[in-house]
Specification:
The protein is of the alpha/beta class. 50% of the residues lie in helices and 10% in strands. It has 13 helices and nine strands. Strands 7-6-5-8-9 form a five-stranded parallel sheet, with helices on both faces. The chain has a two-stranded antiparallel ribbon with strand order 1-2. Strands 3-4 form a two-stranded antiparallel ribbon. Helix 1 packs across helix 9 and helix 7 crosses helix 12. The protein is globular, with a radius of gyration of 20 Å. The N terminus is likely disordered. The protein binds iron/sulfur cluster and zinc ion (2 copies). Iron/sulfur cluster binds next to helix 6 and helix 10.
Length: 325
């Protein structure tokens, strides 16, 4: 594990007399490393319990990218599962998109951490499943008139490989490392694109749908009430050896997601609670939409059989065909 410095700030902890590591503008609390660490771990546990994310009988698969979020998630879920549920051991699942340097570094660290925690670790690669790494896809599509951004290919393919990989591993729950900032950002993106069906389908307590469920594993996001900068501080306190930057494509491509995040960060300077407002807005709106939006008929993709809305072919199969044409 890397030895990251924790920068202590001026001031005394609201709960004890130690020097502080974080000032929470949204709550007015000042916390020292030890009180902060235990608060974060309690929040993760309470989120799992409040939203009934896991049952003792579940087999949990953790999506492990090797970033600060997924290491924090794996460490906590492993502790909770061993202490409380004592059900089947957790398995970590990493998708290797094939992004030079970035993913190689993350996979090396993910493998080491799984060894240290004695957790089974499965790696599934784009190249094995769709024939090309993401870097190769981007090079291949470079001259193409309909070329898309890396994230368009990556998100669709990765989502499918994670889902299928988790089910093949016998998982009943797939834990994702999305934090509060990610949830706020995605919600705002979906509003900007008027994706009400998607917001509705993300309702956390949505009813079981016997037509769709056999294809998609239940996803949970235990970090969803923790802002990104707090996961950053937590991961440094725990000395997790995570990749210290974002994926290079996030910087290269002019994706809207990045702009939405910058907008939220700007708003936070004036309204520190803004991400919590977006989170609560998402919870309320997804419940309302889920009750009111008429359930759409789903076609089955004519290649893989997965539900694909009004289309005849799902996005994943479309991309695969496009890559091999
Ligand atoms: S930023 Fe885009 S290309 Fe990079 S891992 Fe995320 S979705 Fe994939
Ligand atoms: Zn303290
Ligand atoms: Zn398909």
């Amino acid at each position: 594990m890397a030895n990251y410095n924790i920068f202590l700030k001026r001031g005394k902890c609201t709960r004890c007399t130690n020097s502080i590591v974080i000032q929470r503008k949204y709550s007015g609390e000042n916390l020292c490393p030890s009180c902060f660490e235990s608060n974060i771990e309690k929040t993760i546990y309470k989120t799992i319990s409040k939203y009934k994310m896991v049952k003792p009988s579940d087999k949990i698969i953790v999506a492990l990218s090797g970033g600060k979020d997924s290491f924090s998630l794996l460490y906590n879920l492993d502790k909770i599962q061993k202490r409380l549920y004592r059900s089947e051991p957790i398995t970590a699942l990493t998708i290797d998109e094939g992004i030079k340097d970035y993913r190689e570094y993350c996979i090396k660290n993910a493998t080491e951490v799984c060894k240290q925690l004695d957790i089974e670790h499965k790696i599934i690669s784009f190249r094995d499943k769709v024939g090309y790494s993401l870097d190769e896809i981007i090079t291949k599509k470079h001259q193409h008139p309909n070329k898309r951004y890396a994230c368009n290919y990556c998100a669709t393919i990765r989502r499918r490989l994670l889902n299928d990989g988790a089910m093949e591993l016998g998982g009943t729950v797939l834990a994702m490392g999305h934090n509060l900032t990610d949830i706020a950002e995605t919600f705002l993106m979906n509003i900007l694109h008027k994706r009400f069906n998607l917001i509705s389908s993300q309702f956390i307590y949505k009813q079981e749908n016997s037509l769709i469920n056999p294809y998609f594993i239940k996803k949970i996001t235990p970090l969803m009430r923790i802002p990104e900068e707090e996961i950053f501080v937590y991961a440094n306190i725990k000395k997790f050896n995570y990749y210290p930057s974002h994926c290079p494509f996030r910087e290269k491509d002019p994706i809207l997601r990045k702009r939405v995040l910058e907008f939220i960060q700007e708003c936070k300077k004036y309204s520190p609670e803004i991400e919590f407002n977006l989170f609560n807005g998402f919870m309320e709106l997804s419940a309302i939409l889920n009750n009111h939006i008429e359930k759409r008929e789903n076609n089955d993709c004519k290649f893989c059989g997965y539900p694909c809305g009004k289309a005849q072919v799902c996005n994943y199969c479309n991309f695969k065909m496009e890559l091999h044409s």
